Amino acid sequence: MTTIARVELDQVPLLARPYFADGDPGPIVRSLAQVPELLTVALPFIGAALGPSAISFRAKEIVIVRTSALAGCRFCVQTHAVVALEAGLTSDQVAALQSCGPTDEAFPDPRERALLRWIDVVAGGGPVSDDERATVLRSWSDHEVVELTAVVGTTLMLNRYATALALPTAPEAVERLAQEGLL
Amino acid sequence: MSTETVESLPAEAGPIARAVADGVMPSRVWMYANYHCNIQCTYCLTESGPKVAQRALSPETMLAVAEQARELGFTDLGVTGGETFLMPHMPDTLAALSANLPVVALTNGTLFSRRLLAKVEHLAECDVALQISLDRPDADVNDEMRAPDNFRKVTQAIPDLVERGITVRIATTVESIEDNELDRLCALHRDLGVPDSEHIIRPIVRRGRADTEDLGVEAVASDLPSELTITDDGAFWGPFGPTVKDGVLDTDLLVTRTTLPLETPARALLGLLEGRPEGADSTLNIR
Fold it and tell me: In what side-by-side order are the strands of the sheet with B254-256?
């Protein structure tokens, strides 16, 4: 398969070195490191959007896995399915997110159901109706909807990036998903 | 070199000008005009040779770099390659660059035919110095590391250039040199019209082809000059940064892919320099 070069660990540009301090940071960072000035801006933003914040770890992983599934991003689905399990989602819930199909059965919590409807509308493209905004705002506060929507957008950016550049999933992630029956 | 101090800078001087004035940021901006060369030295950092891609900066880009370097507060320019005079525009480009800032241009000194000498003659009126490589006082030893007939061509070109009023510097790049050999080399460059003040001696740096050939000293970023260096592939930490090994560009000393506006790589480099611990400067005589 033709894929994009990822910087070798002995060729890490100066500005990118802090992101490699703990070893191999994975294919997104290793590819972005080819353009260090982009990496140093993108990583803090991605970290702020997808990392720990006022939104729970579990809710963010619901957003990331579902959005990635809708965008058809193998890398992001596989990588974050493992993270979602760590965030407390069950295998059935992860499978439902991955399926792109109905999720109500796996997600009985009304707030999470509202979130999932919002993700499907936002990540699905096209216009977003007043009704849909009103629905999500009944379960989530304004600032939470802002952040969750930004997480969908950031995930979509990474989905297209990882898919276009054919980034490889880490073997250990693939192994874990196989054990969970999620491949 | 700059004699400006932080105190003498105008109030509107930006962070780069201030960093240059207080010595945090080196004053020179280098440009890799091209990567191809008519010869193939055994210690070449960039694996330059006749068959490599040019990867040239256009004259327009070089001029933009020079103008923006001056505006930002840099005080000197350097042009290197590849063999810079393989680019037909080089005599005129050097003159145009020097209208912004003083220039030192590196050349192997082997292309100065009567025709090229006529084309560079006007550089005598410009703030341009040509830095020519001459490693040994004996033709056979010199040419072994560089190219056949290199010594003869260089020792002919240097007085031809000096006679025309062009400032010539000599760079000697060696793993080591005996006192006696160095004495004879210095006598030679004086005979050719180049004073001691215009002669630099530097070690071979183990990067590029020198690494392949198992030559030179190992050097990390802090050992190497941090002069902002602009290439067709991006901006680097010094002219020893954009090296090529086995045909692949090294990126370990890449600063940014963005080269213009020059402020982008200049600010990125300044950030790296300001984050450097005190006393982390080079202990090697690499320049």
Answer: B199-203, B167-174, B128-133, B103-107, B76-80, B28-32, B228-231, B234-237, B254-256
Could you tell me if A46 and A116 lie in one domain? no
| Residue ranges of A 72-101 with Cβ closer than 8 A to chain B | none
Among A31, A32, A37, the strongest candidate for a mutation testing the B interface, having the largest count of B CBs within 10 A, is A37
Q: How far does CA A63 lie from the centroid of its chain?
A: 7
Query: Are residue A92 and residue A39 in the same domain, yes or no?
Result: no
Query: Within a domain: residue A9?
Result: no
| A34/B237 CB distance under 8 A | no
In chain A, how many domains are there?
2
**pLDDT tens per residue across all 183 residues of chain A:** 888 899 999 999 999 999 999 999 999 999 999 999 999 999 999 999 999 999 999 999 999 999 999 999 999 999 999 999 999 999 999 999 999 999 999 999 999 999 999 999 999 999 999 999 999 999 999 999 999 999 999 999 999 999 999 999 999 999 999 999 999
pLDDT tens digits for range B220-271: 999 999 999 999 999 999 999 999 999 999 999 999 999 999 999 999 999 9
- Give the number of C-alpha atoms closer than 13 A to the C-alpha of residue A169, restricted to the C-beta side: 21
The answer to whether the CB atoms of A36 and B237 lie below 8 A apart is: no
Residue B285 located in a structural domain: no
Comparing CA positions, the residue from A89, A83, A58, A42 lying closest to residue A173 is: A83
Complex ipTM value:
0.86
Taking the CA of residue A173 and the nearest CA in chain B, the distance in Å comes to 29
| CB contact A168 to B (< 8 Å) | no
